[in-house]
Every structure is written in structure tokens, then in C-alpha cells.
Backbone:
């Protein structure tokens, strides 16, 4: 009798062991995927995230559900991701601001660099330097000469201390060797009334939100920050054409929690590449002023480290003092 029980237990144990690999091999994803967005609904990052979420839902047969988790410059959403299970069912749609935070914030309850597992860049678009039309400089060379001849006479607005628009301008100051006063605002949208009226003179912002102002003559574009000229502003030179080495595109990308298995990361990266190749998404991105820029996880991880290093250098060289909550 005892021997029969032992045999029965052995058979049951073997059955369970055999069933475990089958469970582990269930196709991913087999339930909805939560996509955190570190901003409020309706903004540029949110709109891009929803474009990619819709396309991935169609391709992978499961809903990719956008969840807006704003606040604290995006660090609340990053903290949520850092605590999430590494199973591919919680992702985050991040942007350049994530690299700024990782480079500059030191009092967070998580490591903002290692809390993100890079999957792939999603899309990118350049920032554009715009000035009030009354500024007596018709191009970037004239603007640099004007600033050098009039130190501290002119000012620029930003989305706030430590934001990408702030650091883009500070890097310009360092490379051009000019002095222009910084006036921080709560978002670039808040800068626009003062820029248009001439109370501040310059702003770095994304090409999409500035396109309308440029077309209507409210602001004058002087340079874009990407490696190549923007298709949306083909007559505007790159900053690197005057300041070699200056390249700072505004990018978005998708990350997973720490320790997410490589097969899941690789599968998502492949689906993102497939999404950016689809005519439907490519058209939407073009209308938004952006373009798809997929990367392998290895490529994106390298880019991510480069971006964090660049922003750390800017913060240090510009002696920027950041306040942390």
C-alpha cells in the first residue's frame, strides 16, 4: 500500500513538473498591457503614446491601455514602473525628460537609470529655437553675435528648471559662449504669451507645438536641434551647422521594469519596429511632425546611457542647481 502511494505521488509530481513549462511558454501577451505615460492626457507625449498603443494592440491581439500617471516631473510614473512585476504587462512610454531626471535627480526612492529597461525608441522630432520677430537677428549666426555683443540683455523662457528645454538652452549657451538670462515657467505653453509679446526673447520647444506659431509669424525659427533638418521646417538649419557637435532631438521610447526577461523585451522591440514601418502609423507621425525611429534593445540601451551622460555634463558644466521634492 505504501509503495502504491509513493508511485502515485511520483506520478503527480512528474505531471506538475511537466505542466510548468507549458504554463511558462504561454504566448505573450495573453492579457491587456498597461502603458504608463508620465504626463496628463492630451499632451504631445500622451498623443504619441496612444498612437503606438493602438498600433501594438492591433498587431499583438491584446489591448495596450494607456494610463496617465502625471506629477513630479514624471518620477511618479517611473517609480510605479520600478515597483511593477517584470512580466511585460506594465510598460512606460518615456521621453527626453526621463534622461534629464536620471541625470539630475539624486533623492528619489529608486535609481532612475536602472529602474528602466530599454526596449526601443519609438519616435523623435527636433526641438526648434524660436525668437520673438522683433529680435534683430535673422539667423542663428546673427543671434549669437547679438548675444555676445549684449551680454545679459536678452532672455529665454523654459518649461522649468531642469527640463529638457532648459538644458537645451544651457547647452547652447555653453557651446556658443553667450550669456542670456533664464526665466523658468510651468511648461512651454506658459512661455508663449510672453514670447509673442516680447517680454522674453527666445525659447526651445518641439517643432509640432511651434509649427502654427511659425506659420502665422508669431515667432521666427532660427535652428533645429536634430542631426538633420526637419522635414516640417526644411529651410531652418540645424544647430550643428553653426555649432558642430550640438545635437539634441526630442525622443520618445518604451521601457520595461528592471529584470524583464530578454525574450519579452526582444519581442516588444520587434513589434515596435513593425509598427513604425506601417503606413498608417507613419502617416500619423508625419502629421504630428515626428518620425518613427525604432532601435534594438542594445542600441536603445546605448543611446539611453549616452543621453544620461550628456545631460549630466550639461548640468555640471552649466552649474545648474536643481530643487528636489
Residues:
Amino acid at each position: 500500500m505504501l509503495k502504491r502511494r509513493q508511485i502515485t505521488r511520483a506520478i503527480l509530481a512528474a505531471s506538475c513538473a511537466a505542466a510548468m513549462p507549458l504554463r511558462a511558454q504561454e504566448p505573450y501577451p495573453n492579457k491587456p498591457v498597461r502603458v504608463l505615460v508620465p504626463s496628463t492626457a492630451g499632451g504631445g507625449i500622451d498623443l504619441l503614446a496612444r498612437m503606438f498603443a493602438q498600433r501594438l494592440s492591433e498587431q499583438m491581439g491584446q489591448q495596450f491601455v494607456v494610463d496617465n500617471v502625471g506629477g513630479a516631473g514624471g518620477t511618479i510614473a517611473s517609480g510605479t514602473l520600478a515597483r511593477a512585476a517584470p512580466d511585460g504587462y506594465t510598460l512606460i512610454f518615456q521621453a527626453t525628460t526621463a534622461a534629464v531626471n536620471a541625470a539630475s535627480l539624486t533623492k528619489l526612492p529608486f535609481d532612475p537609470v536602472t529602474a528602466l529597461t530599454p526596449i526601443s525608441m519609438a519616435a523623435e522630432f527636433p526641438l526648434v529655437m524660436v525668437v520673438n520677430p522683433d529680435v534683430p537677428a535673422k539667423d542663428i549666426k546673427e543671434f549669437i553675435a547679438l548675444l555676445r555683443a549684449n551680454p545679459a540683455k536678452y532672455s529665454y523662457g523654459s518649461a522649468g528648471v531642469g527640463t529638457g528645454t532648459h538644458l537645451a538652452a544651457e547647452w547652447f549657451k555653453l557651446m556658443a559662449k553667450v550669456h542670456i538670462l533664464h526665466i523658468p515657467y510651468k511648461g512651454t505653453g506658459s512661455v508663449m504669451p510672453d514670447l509673442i509679446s516680447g517680454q522674453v526673447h527666445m525659447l526651445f520647444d518641439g517643432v509640432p507645438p511651434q509649427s502654427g506659431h511659425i506659420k502665422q509669424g508669431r515667432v521666427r525659427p532660427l535652428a533645429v536641434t536634430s542631426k538633420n533638418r526637419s522635414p516640417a521646417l526644411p529651410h531652418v538649419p540645424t544647430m550643428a551647422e553653426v555649432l558642430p557637435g550640438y545635437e539634441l532631438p526630442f525622443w520618445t521610447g518604451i521601457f520595461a521594469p528592471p529584470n524583464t526577461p530578454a525574450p519579452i523585451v526582444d519581442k516588444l522591440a520587434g513589434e515596435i519596429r513593425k509598427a513604425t514601418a506601417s503606413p498608417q502609423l507613419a502617416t500619423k507621425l508625419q502629421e504630428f511632425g515626428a518620425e518613427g525611429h525604432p532601435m534594438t534593445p542594445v542600441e536603445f540601451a546605448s543611446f539611453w546611457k549616452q543621453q544620461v551622460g550628456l545631460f549630466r555634463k550639461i548640468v555640471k558644466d552649466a552649474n545648474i542647481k536643481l530643487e528636489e521634492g
Observations:
- Confidence is low (pLDDT under 50) at residues 10-24.
- The two ends are 68 Å apart (CA to CA).
